[in-house]
Fold this protein.
Amino acid sequence: MKGEIDHDLPIPLYYQLEKIIKDSISNGDLKPGDLLPTESELEQIYSISRATVRHAVQNLENEGYLRKERAKGTFIKYPPIKRKFLGSLKCFSEEMQRKGIPHSTMELKKEIIKADPLIADKLQIDLGSSVFYIKRLRKVDNSPVLIVESYLPYDICPNIEKEDFNTCSLYDILETKYSVLLFHGHRFIEPKIVDSDETMDLLGIEPGTCISAIESTIFSSDNRPVEHLYADMVGKISIDLG
């Protein structure tokens, strides 16, 4: 694997290791079926702690880049499929309304935060820039199905935190109030075993339930990232991606 970890950068060491491994997969240095160096080897190569290595490896396993086999080690997988979707980019409420399905949204949390290295990278903004964060619970026919955490560059939507997202659509507000034209995006969807007590409580599911983990970035017409989101979904919903 090529790449170095800079201990002086204000970027988490585990995130730097994740990027090195992802880059090595992308450029072919690590191929599907290859054995990843052991935790001990990675610890020595990059002068980082075992906990840092495990954090990075676990994240990559959750994202679908790695798979662990008992007594054999950790192997490289084919990268998760990155799907690009175009067109109308219908939001959850618009799609449910079009299908005539009863639905609702519960605003769980919203605040203005500072961009950490990961969010700054995803939104292509400076580290520490202001970001609007909102967490919502989506219900279909009164059953919880989706927890969504969205991050938006605050400079494109000042004072958006004053909106009531129990009744308003985030995408509608971006387009009508802030003249942000949603143009295209990409989305990763991977299965995972639920690992959060809060998620189990909000979705009303039991430990060990397999859910869908979603990561998505939406771009404006000038190709600027305007939203990065993470979502946990239980069950199956048909969404038109345009």
